[in-house]
Each structure stands twice: as structure tokens, then as C-alpha cells.
Amino acid sequence: MRIVADGLTFTYNRKTKFAKKALDDVTLTIREGSFFGIIGHTGSGKSTFIQHLNGLIPVESGTLTVGDLDLSKGKKTDKKGLRALRAKIGMVFQYPEYQLFATTVYEDVAFGYHNFFPEKSKEEERAAVFAALRTVGLDDSVADKSPFDLSGGQKRRVAIAGVLVSDPEVLVLDEPVAGLDPAGKNELMALLHRIHDGGKKTVVVVSHDMDDVAENCDALAVFSEGRVVMTGTPEEVFSRRKELEELRLDVPVTRKIADALAEKGLGNAFPLRSDDFVRKVAQLYRGKRV
Amino acid sequence: MNAIEFTNATYRYPGDDAPVLNSLSFSIRQGSFSVVLGRNGSGKSTAAKLINALILPNEGNVVVLGKDTVRAADGDLLFEIRKSAGMVFQNPDNQQIASIVEDDVVFGPENVGMPREEIAERIAFALEATGTEQFRHAQVSRLSGGQKQRVAIAGVLALRPEIVILDESTSMLDPKGRREVLDVIRKLQKEHGITVIDITHYMDEATDADEAFVLRNGELAFAGTPKELFARTDLLRACGLELPRAAELAKKLNENGVPVGDGILTTEELTEKLCELLQTD
Prior knowledge:
Number of helices of chain A: 11
Radius of gyration of chain A: 21 Å
CATH class of the largest domain in chain A: Alpha Beta
Largest sheet of chain B: 6 strands, mixed
Largest sheet of chain A: 6 strands, mixed
Distance between the termini of chain A: 51 Å
Oligomer: heterodimer
Strand content of chain B: 15-25%
Number of domains of chain A: 2
Order of helices and strands of chain A: EEEHEEHEHHHEHEHEEHHHH
CATH class of the largest domain in chain B: Alpha Beta
Number of strands of chain B: 10
């Protein structure tokens, strides 16, 4: 599903003295099958933007289309339409494990399924729940456990399974690895790649980790003060280091080293992804020795 | 002298059979900067609560600045320990009490009945040390995450702690916010001799620590310098840790025939080494 926002603007507490413009003329296209990264400082509008994608925040002005559904103001999206949309756009909030509530993992994951597809049979529900658990790398024995007895990384994966259970076409995650230990983080990133499956699903991640988005995303948008100030491939975006630093952001380690090497005249056009970067440096080093 | 000493400290949560911390022994030097690493659930936060005397060990001892926490509990000295070991938590949005920065920082000292003149002096120091003077009169809710965490640190500093413990205090911040908080705690340790303990999942925060401690399943799996730790890839894997970014890159370079050598932990070190290797002489 392609996501197209045009001139999207949103103000919290509109018409009160606490009014705060959270989105200001946001125009952005997220290509179908993309592994898309959204970066920006705290309070830049990232979370407000993604909450528009499944209709949690109704469009106030501007237009927004998700697949063939038009969410723009004035377009009638009835309850049924919204439910169908939310089944297709899976939304994983920050610290989603805080939202686990059921007594067993199975019930927690099944809750979402039942909500979206109340007409489906118990057998279909079972199949969907176990498929979602397997996708997130949890084996069937976990299903009867209390979600609160699991580790932090496992709890988060249960929460994600609860979203995957409706088989969404787009998965949107707000800082999915925040607070996870390195091993948990790496498992989760690998999971997102399995879900993305080379572009079969669209994955949108909000992240504060520049190295992570450089390694994983194929396109980025940079938010600041409610506006989209840059879009492009990670290479394009991270080549604008000065601007990013002014926006309270940073660049990946490979970019920092590449800049230092280029400044000394020791090479240029270094790739951003670490494996490609290493290959390029190895090439230069060998070339120097012959 | 040691600021903190654990001797065979064991702790189990009420009703649990298995201890979260199992006979833990280690010590932290006064005035040092330490990091505590380990998987979620390895016992890091529990260890922090033992230092702060929020909980007491079931077996063994925890001695903080010469005071045994169990004995302090009997003798009503718990408050002294809690004042001297301040804690900063993860979420910048739920550590403030007042709506204005200054009122928030003053809350602690007023609460412990610090004399007025001393309060003024402490507040001035806490705001200065954390670089938060310029928003002294601002509303807490208008600040960025990094600024809020610095205010939280100021609130802790106002009580004159000798130890500051950060429990994943940078995990919810944007890159600039993290940098700000890390710069502040580094300054506290270097310029004011405060013992800083940073519990973190960011390996990059560990690179310039004096000492690194790794917990695994409630036991101490490693104590030593960051350089020693990151040389032990088997241990890192077993404990769910990873190399800092620059070290990971250095490892890949070594594997691909670029001899940057062992022991590189930071971007600066790697940059310098690569400049050297690629320089045409």
C-alpha cells in the first residue's frame, strides 16, 4: 500500500491558548514495499504523523491516502472502513508491551484478531494466532504462559504478534527497539526484515538511531518542528550532516569516518552501509599497497 | 576507597523462589565512572535499588559509603543513604513533580528540611552543573526529553549526593538529548568527584568508562575495563551484548584485510587508524 500525504497540517488543542501546531504542511510519499525510516528530534511531529496513517488522528487539513482509501477531511470513512483500514495498517506504539493485558499470550494475541474479524471461526483464529507467534519467533509453548512472565524482548514480540495477527499490509512502529538490550534489538530488527520480506510488506519505523536507519531503511524522511525537512535515500539524507546536526540529529559512524577521510583527501564517495563501507576501504587499502 | 561494596548479596522478590541477584560481589571506587551492562532481566535495576537502599539484600551485604544498608535500616539511617545515592530513571516524562523547573529542583532539599541559605546555594550549583539555568523559570512540560532528564539530574544533585545512578536514563532521548545528558554526567564525575553508575544498553556509552560490570542471570559475569570487555567476543555474545559501533566496524575491517588492529572502541580511534593506513607516503 502506498501512502501519500499532501499538505497535512494538524494542531493540538486548536482554538485554545494551548494550541500547538504539531504538523505543518507535511507532504510525503511512502512507496509500497519500502522499509521507510522517520527520524527527527523529540517533539518534531513523527508520532503525530504516524497516528494519522490509521485514522487515530483524523485529518484536519490537507489530504492523506493510504492504498486506495482516502482519509482526507470531508471524505466519509465509516466505522467499517476504519476497521478495515486498521486491520491493514498495523500500528506498534512505543513500549507496546505496556499494553499487554490478557492472562495468556494466546488470548492477548487473539484479542486483536477477534476485534477485526468477529465473524471468523475459532479454528481460523487459532491458525492466525499461532502463525503470528511463529512469525515473531515465539514457539507454540509460549501461548499458554502469562505474557508478564516473559522477558522484555519476548513481551515486545508478543505485542507485535497482536498487531501482525490481522495480517496487515503496512506495519508502522514507533521506536521499536527502544529499551531493548542489544541481543533483543538485533532479534527484533531481523524480525522486521522477515516481515518486510524484500518488499512484500511496507514497514515504517520511527527511530532515534541513525546507524540503525542507515543500515536498514531504503528511504527516509526527516521531521523538524512539524515539517518534513528532508526526504531521500539514507545516502542522500546523511550527506547533509551540518543541517542534521542543527536539527539535534546525528549521522552514522561510517559517515563520520568517511567525512574525515575525504577531508584528508584519502578517498571519496564512501558508501553508508557498513558492509559496503568496509569493502570500499579494503579496496583503497589494497590499491595503496600495490 | 570504595563508594559501593557488594558482598555475596542475594535478593529475591517476595514470593519468588529464584533470586534475581545471586551472591553478587563487586565494588565501585569512589569518584569513578562505571557502566553496568546486561540483558533485560539480568538484575541491573535490582542492583541499583540495592545501592539506593530501596530494597535490602536477603543475604550478604551492600555497603554504601561505609554504611551497611541492612544495619542502616535498623538504625534509621536509610534516608541518609538514599540522599547520598541519587537515581535518575528512564522516562523523562514521569520524574518531575512541580510544573516549573526551579520548583522541581527545590522540592528535594525543602523536603529534607535543608536550611534556606544552603538550598539557594545547592539549587544554583545543581542548575549550573546540568546547564539548566536558562530554563530555571520555564515549564517542565515545554522542555525536550534531554532537557527534562538534565532537570531530573539537577533534582538529584540538589540533595548533595555522592553517588548518581542512571537507570537507562538516555534510552528515550534523541541523539542530541543523549549527548547532553552524557556530557553532564561526565562533568559531574570529572569536576565534582561524584561517583557515576550508568546502567545502559548502549555499548557506545561504555567505551570511556573507568570500569564495566556485566550481569547475567543475576550473577556477575564480568568486571574490568571496557577494553578488556570488548576484546571478549564470546562473553559478549553469551551475555546478549554487542560491540560498540566503531569496534564492530573495526572488526569487519580486520576480517577484510584492513589491519586496523585490536582494541579500537571509538569512532575517533578508528578514524585516526584509517587515516594512518590510507595515507600515501
